[in-house]
Amino acid sequence: MNTALEVAPHDPAIGSAVAVRLGEIESFLFRCVEAGQQEGSVSAERPPEDLARLLLAVLMGMRVLARAPGPWPPAGRVAAGALVARSPGTGGNAMMGTEASVRVVPHTPIPSPHPYPGPRPSMAGACGGSPDPHRVVIGIMTSSHFRRLAALLITLLPTNGLRRAAYRWALGYEIHPTARVDALSFISVARLVLGPGAHLERFNLFSGPLSLTVGARSSIASSNQIRCGIWTGAAAPSDHGARYQQRMVVGDGCRISPGHFFDANGEILIGDRCWIAGRGSQFWTHGASTPRSTVHIGADCFIGSACRFAPGAAIADNTVVSLGSVVTRSFSTPYRLLGGVPAKELRDIEDDIRSKRLFAGRWTEASGV
């Protein structure tokens, strides 16, 4: 981007291409703001054109600040705060209005291109015919490229209400009005469903053609990865002929601590009120030597730090998996402590749980989630 902007004044073709691409980004922001104003999550006191241009200016400025040495991240936060304060409004959130004003409306796909005011030259016209990939810095985006760019732009929007509206209207995600999605989390998936009170914290990376559902009052802390490869599409069977489910479901009242990895090429199911604790656990659903592509975790379970779940692994309700364990098979008996490499049943913990010497079965309730 910096190179394109520097070359643009000296090369008309690149200058026109940059103008087209900035116009598309501004048009995207315009559609997000307009959609938010229509559903009531963005204040309608300012024209959407003004807010879109303001967001574009702040976005470009924050890109520069992010690359500059020195104490610039605080300046970026100040700029984001100034953006919110710039637009007059009520209820303490000048740009977005109050959270109570947000209501759910059915998702309607946005026509493309949107009738945004101003000229919208074509890419071919900007470059004098068919684009030359060796001469034009920015090429035409495919739909998958657009979704990734849209997801990246949304992570930089300054308020939860605006991010939520943008995700719903630009990418079609189903997000409850009480759910929260923090900034600086890259979420580019095929389908996202967030239940009431769900919370996705910052610095997460969720990507690929997967369906992700997060239940009511569940939270995913920072620096988690949920990945699904494009190669696992509907037409791509596994090495053993099975289809990849490309799905992850987190039940109600769950807590996923920072720094875990989830391979969602297959299917990962996490029951209600589970706690994926500590850091560094990995959950795998594919492998060259196994036909299995699922990981199932029952309700009211606790997973310690640095655990590994192999494809086909499953644990029953009220199970505790101790630190560093490697779960390679299915355990169908509830109220068990598992541990070891590979994991095995160490003892029955039902009496400990029922006498509340252990809080398994109430992990997230005990921690206030």
UniProtKB/TrEMBL annotation:
Listed name of the protein: Acyltransferase
Protein's organism: Sabulicella glaciei
Top-rank taxon: Bacteria
PANTHER family: SIALIC ACID SYNTHASE-RELATED (PTHR23416)
Matches recorded under InterPro entries: Hexapeptide_acetyltransf, Tet_transcr_reg_TetR-rel_C_sf, Trimer_LpxA-like_sf
